[in-house]
Amino acid sequence: MALLNWDLFLERVEGNESLALELAYDLLLCVDSYLENLEYAIAGSYRKQIEHSAHALRGLIAPYGGVELTEELKMIEEEARAGEAPTFVEIPLIIRTMVIELKAELRAKLANFQPKLPIRRRRPEHSL
Questions:
Q1: What pLDDT was estimated at residue 59?
Q2: Residues in Cβ contact with 95 at an 8 Å cutoff, skipping those fewer than 6 apart
Q3: What is the mean pLDDT of residues 68-89?
Q4: What are the helix (H) ranges across 44-66?
């Protein structure tokens, strides 16, 4: 299942490829801390924090097109907002798996944009 919709994301940043790359790198740097915040809130059954953490993670990921993942997070957010106790004691495996997959897809996409270094040819050695 593809979680990354690069074309949609690029459209959202008005085709600015360098901005898209910068934001993608930022996502890779901070998504784990967002996931850890949600994990902490769920482990402690802190409903308000679950709501905020799920919302923040959803907002972080949504621009990249991960519809299935954002729907899962929305469900958790809405349950917490409604005051329903979570029926799980840790982040559902499906969410963790989708975040890992999104990161892998982003890394693969970013690898295509790595600057190509020019091949330097050795100068022929001159004999004296």
A1: 94
A2: 35, 69, 72, 73, 76
A3: 85
A4: 47-61
Q: Would the pTM of this model clear 0.85, i.e. be above it?
A: no
Rg (CA), the chain: 20
Give the dihedral of Cα atoms 37, 43, 49, 55; nearest 10 deg.
60
Q: What's the gap between Cα 52 and its chain centre? A: 17
- In degrees and rounded to multiples of 5, residue 17 shows phi and psi of -65, -40
Instruction: Report, in this order, helix, strand and coil percent for the chain, each rounded to 5.
Output: 65, 0, 35
Say which residue the tokens 């982003």 belong to.
106
User: What is the CB neighbour count within 10 angstroms for residue 16?
Assistant: 12
- Tokens, residue 78: 């809405």
| Cα angle for residues 3, 87, 74 (degrees, 5° grid) | 35
Given a cut of 90, is residue 117 above it in pLDDT?
no
